[in-house]
Specification:
The protein is of the alpha+beta class and about 180 residues long. The protein has 2 domains: about 90 residues, no CATH class; about 70 residues, no CATH class. About 25% of the residues lie in helices and about 25% in strands. The longest helix is centred in the middle third of the chain and has 36 residues. The protein is globular and about 45 Å long. The two termini are about 30 Å apart.
Length: about 180
């Protein structure tokens, strides 16, 4: 099966991803890619991921993933696009802002991060203003797993995304762009 610019199957570190031009939102800094393993669209920082993604070398597997993606898009693609466009508008309105107790707005304060945390954020195209420490707003006794790589996450030692309030995994995934459907 030949892959066009409209639909492209690739991989990053062994993880298969499907690119479809129809999923890309105008003026968004993100690259939206469908993941066959969890049958959902994940959001990536475009400038960070583009140099890493490579064309899937097995044309038979690429064709099977493209077919599975088309089935998903026919059933769920339109509703995902509407929901993600609304989410992106909401994020733009509140990005880098927090409410202070007096009701005014102030810039989010930078964190005192370890070199490992700084490197992880940089690798995934995020800044220290995008996250907060778990427990900054009181105890966070959350134990869960990453929706992307399935790693265990613990509220006692993970960063939290300021946009979605989900724990941030070391793979760079949080809840931004998550669609329950």
């Amino acid at each position: 099966m030949s892959q066009s610019q409209e639909l492209w199957v690739g991989e990053v570190a062994g993880r298969v991803l499907v690119f479809d031009a129809k999923l890309q939102l105008p003026s968004s800094p993100y690259l939206y890619l469908w993941t066959p393993s969890n049958r959902q669209v994940d959001r990536y920082i475009a400038q960070t991921l583009r140099p890493q993604i490579k064309k899937l070398s097995d044309p038979t597997a690429a064709g099977a993933h493209a077919t599975a993606y088309r089935d998903w898009f026919e059933a769920s693609g339109a509703s995902w696009l509407v929901a993600e466009a609304k989410e992106l508008q909401s994020e733009d309105a509140r990005q880098q802002r927090t409410q202070d107790p007096a009701g005014g707005e102030q810039e989010a304060e930078a964190l005192d991060l370890t070199s490992r945390e700084k490197a992880m954020l940089q690798r995934h195209g995020r800044s220290e203003h995008d996250v907060r420490r778990a427990g900054d707003d009181g105890p966070e006794e959350r134990i869960t797993h990453c929706r992307s790589c399935k790693a265990s996450l613990d509220g006692s030692d993970n960063l939290v995304c300021r946009r979605c309030s989900w724990l941030l995994c070391t793979c760079g995934t949080c809840g931004c762009g998550f669609n329950r459907t």
